[in-house]
């Protein structure tokens, strides 16, 4: 399973490195979201600094939807998904590989967005260990849920339009927990982030377990 996951993840990341979709389309979109938030809110009243954690994770969630859609499009092109099934790869390995590739892309985007809120919003990134742990756990949850629900949307025959509608309600708890954990860290009270980190870990384990257990069936239906 893990060998197949490594093969699939390497394939997806190699395609992204050659196509530059993440760096030339998703990353500029994420930064544009931060800039639009800056225009919409009043920076003179410190609103941006207080709202920075929520705005950061909203930008990440929007980017995650795009990254997952791109991951699915790779398999839809020339019926490459059928090729994966015919290659006798473990469905759980395919799920872990695709989710892992999405997670790597999201981590890179989060680093860029963290620099963005520092420069655009004047946010001081306090408690880097808590921020990093929350980012890793939230990214695992977002990537796993996105990959699984992309297969669900594909089975319903309307992948591009249904995926956001199906995915956003499911990842809302991840968005909330990650935002609260970052708020606690940025306010200098990392101990208050512990319950939210535990919630992020629980959702990450849940989404990964569901994907590993059910991706084979979802893949056949899509």
Task: Describe, in plain words, how this protein is organized in 3D.
- The protein is mainly alpha-helical and 222 residues long.
- The protein has one domain (2-221).
- It has 8 helices and no strands.
- Helix 2 (21-40) packs antiparallel against helix 3 (47-76), helix 3 (47-76) packs antiparallel against helix 7 (159-186) and helix 6 (128-155) runs parallel beside helix 8.
- The chain is globular, with a radius of gyration of 18 Å.
- It starts with a helix and ends with a helix.
- The relative contact order is 0.15.
Count of the domains: 1
DSSP strand tally: 0
Radius of gyration: 18 Å
Question: Uncertain segments of ≥5 residues (pLDDT<50)?
Answer: none
Name its key features.
mainly alpha; 222 residues
List the helices and strands and how they pair.
Blueprint: H1 2-19, H2 21-40, H3 47-76, H4 80-86, H5 91-120, H6 128-155, H7 159-186, H8 194-221
Offer a quick outline of the entry.
With 222 residues, the protein is an all-alpha fold.
């Amino acid at each position: 399973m893990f060998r197949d996951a490594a093969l699939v993840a390497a394939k997806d990341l190699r395609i992204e490195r050659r196509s530059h979709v993440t760096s030339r389309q998703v990353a500029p979109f994420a930064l544009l979201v931060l800039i639009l938030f800056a225009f919409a809110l009043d920076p003179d009243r410190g609103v941006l600094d207080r709202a920075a954690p929520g705005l950061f994770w909203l930008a990440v969630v929007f980017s995650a939807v795009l990254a997952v859609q791109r991951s699915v499009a790779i398999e839809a092109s020339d019926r490459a998904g059928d090729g994966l099934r015919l290659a006798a790869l473990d469905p759980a390995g395919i799920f872990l590989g695709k989710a892992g590739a999405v997670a790597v892309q999201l981590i890179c985007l989060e680093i860029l967005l963290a620099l963005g809120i520092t420069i655009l919003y004047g946010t001081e990134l306090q408690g880097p260990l808590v921020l990093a742990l929350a980012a890793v756990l939230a990214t695992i949850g977002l990537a796993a849920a996105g990959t699984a629900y992309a297969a669900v949307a594909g089975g319903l025959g309307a992948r591009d339009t249904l995926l956001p509608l199906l995915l956003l309600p499911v990842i809302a708890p991840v968005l909330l927990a990650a935002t609260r954990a970052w708020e606690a860290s940025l306010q200098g009270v990392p101990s208050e982030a512990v319950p939210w980190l535990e919630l992020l870990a629980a959702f990450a384990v849940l989404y990964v377990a569901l994907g590993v257990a059910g991706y084979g069936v979802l893949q056949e239906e899509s």
